[in-house]
Amino acid sequence: MAAISPPRPPSLREGGERDVSIGTLTTKDFAALAEGEKPFVILLPVGSVEPHGPHLPLETDTIISFAASRRAVDLLAEAGIEARIAPAVPYGVTDFASGFAGAVSVPAATLTAFVAAVAKAYLEAGARHVCLVNNHLEPAHDAAVRAATEGFAAGSASVACPLTRRWARTLSAEFKSGACHAGQYESSLVLAARPELVREAVRETLPEVAVSLSEGIRAGKSTFAEMGMASAYAGTPAKASDVEGREQLELLAEMIAGEVTEALGVARVG
Ligand SMILES: [Zn+2]
Question: Which of the listed CATH numbers 3.40.50.10310, 3.40.50.2300, 3.90.1010.10, 3.40.50.300 matches domain 22-263?
């Protein structure tokens, strides 16, 4: 009797007719990219392991970084750039979520040193540029990721993060309100990227939590609990949709392509 293979769950590469992950290449494949005519660029997804309400997975931020990177590979290909997605750095500085089950935080200096070492290794292996794609927005984490690009030659490393004002203003109204944790914005993104991971029956019943993380941070609050996010989310997850998620993913991909092409001095068409 033929072996029955289990149904394959939709993967992060869903919709991708070709594999764009570094992790599945052979050494020979990698060498061909490094020695190729086109600029070879590494997109390094960065996230965190932390609670995202009762409806989204702990690895939400990495899922968003990967999905946006996946689309950015296509946008960069249109600009003549061979981008590939490196195995992610899924752990980050997650002190805001302390007290919640599943929050795993690493020291900022450790994250900076680790991400810098990975970026340096890719540059030494032949990449022209490494873009750190970060969607975990805790200020100490953002600073630690940005610090990892210091010391590299001009144009060889960048950060694509929606905290950067010019990209933030392109995103949804909820995101701009500061209610940017596990609400309508992030729930929509996960619905678009990994719908099988969203607890839909729970999400649809969640009441709005009208908390702005940016205002809370300005007021000196440093945990979700202090901000009044008793269930580790803010905003309106019940209003999320995969249509909105695809729109926001496209904008995050534009952000990545923008950072990379600017750093390389490559013009984008269209
Ligand atoms: Zn998140």
Answer: 3.40.50.10310
